[in-house]
Please model this.
Amino acid sequence: MTKLVENIYRPLRVFIPVVLVCLLYGFTKMTIDRIRGEHISASATLALVNALITLLIGMLAAALAMRFGRMSSQIAGVRAGDFMVLDEEAAPEEQSKYGLSG
Model:
């Protein structure tokens, strides 16, 4: 269960290995194609484009996980230092700065 929670809030741990496999296959296939002839196959191009799209989706998932993690203090993976607690009797300028009008 702990591994599942860690992977939910660190999605790049899942996406980066997939991206690396696609890049490795794409560049290997492209190199073989260039050695055998002058054209690059569709499968090499598809693997490289797949790696790019997967990387972008992984980055989006990481940004969303970070955003949702900061919104809720009950979600695992949120550090205590991410939040600022103000006293109830804070100065008026601090209250207005953080939208805590009393």
